[in-house]
Design brief:
The protein is α/β, with parallel strands linked by helices and 448 residues long. The chain contains 17 helices and 14 strands. It has helices at residues 16-27, 39-46, 57-63, 74-80, 101-113, 129-139, 159-164, 176-185, 198-229, 233-241, 262-275, 281-305, 331-341, 354-360, 371-375, 396-401, 416-421; strands spanning 8-12, 32-35, 68-71, 81-86, 118-121, 146-149, 168-173, 192-196, 312-316, 345-349, 366-367, 380-383, 406-409, 425-427. Strand 5 (118-121), helix 6 and strand 6 (146-149) form a beta-alpha-beta unit. The radius of gyration is 24 Å and the shape is globular. Bound molecules: nicotinamide-adenine-dinucleotide (NAD). The site of nicotinamide-adenine-dinucleotide (NAD) has 26 residues, from helix 1 and helix 5.
Length: 448
Amino acid sequence: MSNGASTAVGVVGVGYVGLVTAACFADLGHEVVCRDINPARIEALQAGRVPIYEPGIERLLDRNRARLHFTLDLAELTARCRIVFVCVDTPAMHSGDADLSRVNQVIDELAAAGGRYVLVMKSTVPVGTGQRVRADMDARGLGHIGYVSNPEFLREGRAVGDFMEPDRIVIGSFQPADGEAVAALYQDLNTAVIRTDVASAEMIKYAANAFLATKISFINEIANVCEEVGADVSVVASGMGLDERIGSHFLQPGVGYGGSCFPKDVRALKQLAGNSGYHFQLLTAVVEVNDLQKRRVVGKLERHLGSLRGRRIAMLGLAFKANTDDMREAASLVLCDRLRSEGATVVAYDPVAMENARALLAADVQLAGSVLEAVTGADAAVVVTEWGEFRSLASAAVRDAMATPLIVDGRNLLDPDQVRRAGFLYESVGRPSEAVRETVRIGAGEPA
Ligand SMILES: NC(=O)c1ccc[n+]([C@@H]2O[C@H](COP(=O)([O-])OP(=O)(O)OC[C@H]3O[C@@H](n4cnc5c(N)ncnc54)[C@H](O)[C@@H]3O)[C@@H](O)[C@H]2O)c1
């Protein structure tokens, strides 16, 4: 950077993305100043406590403590940083559009602080945001503030590895020099760097998430048809996934996608297309399939229990996926309300998300301290999140503790034959029968 006063990297918003970004940049050798508006979060980080659950982050923060600074005061950041990553949340509004109020607030604050920055948008923002921000800043005489789009693709639960070994880094800029300054921060990572215009960078992020969500809804529909026609979706998915044009990732059927990204990003892209006069039909179906998928568990419970009124259902897993405590748009939230509205009593357990559960679940949902406590006296156990500890669910202790030994496996985590042999009634997703499962690899050098 031209002024050379400071090489510290600024990170605004230290949630799942911001904290991982800060810790990883520090590990790559950069000084990092992090600013958040949540006093409890900053206090925890200053005291060496990690406010989110993300494997590996604690070690990384510890290792780089000397290079990391946490503050509530934007001036501390602007005094030392010339490249500022914006990592604040951009949740969906009722209309489906992304709520950019936090992003706009950060931009206004940075503009008011004075000075020259390159503002790097890591938050997921609708295509066209960069162009609008650029035009607004130019109109306010802030042409000296650079703007770069650098969307983030990390997955919660694997965020550190995803940041350090990304499939690609996307950098969209208006000025080549701004893009180069951002690319330089990543120079020690061995990966493809896509340099592009800002709108294309913004679209890459939305298109990638929408495609992955489409894959999930597609395999969920295939699973539902498998249930009708007696095929086994796990065999079908591996048979499909071996085709290199398709690939095996995101072909696991389940209770539908959730989390802080897919639901809101799919809706935002659909809304963005609609606002521009284009009806994105495919995404309408993707969203509808996903909404219905979360509810299919209820029918599977009723098949065995009849009415759910007065039934006690153990919900195993609340986080939207394993290895995170994030419950934003988790399938568990929808399922929990569906079960309650059918008159069931819900007892819930998650290995790490219990603090969020208390805040997000209705007061009449009972929280258990262990799997065994949750299933004791239950008429069914529903696996909602694919936590490793649920793999041993089909034990004699669990069977004996349950009022009805029924497992509804919303993640196909368990082996159907084993579970049934252990004396349970068992329902999963798209695996209705004892279908043949065998893959034989043939190739050069192997006996015919
Ligand atoms: N979580 C993911 O897996 C993921 C992956 C890729 C991209 N993203 C995108 O990254 C962005 C951040 O997501 P997240 O999950 O980290 O959100 P988050 O809610 O975990 O964190 C956002 C943080 O920003 C802080 N904040 C809000 N307004 C602020 C302000 N004006 N100044 C300073 N801090 C402020 C909040 O207090 C919070 O700590 C979103 O746009 C999201 O779509 C998320």
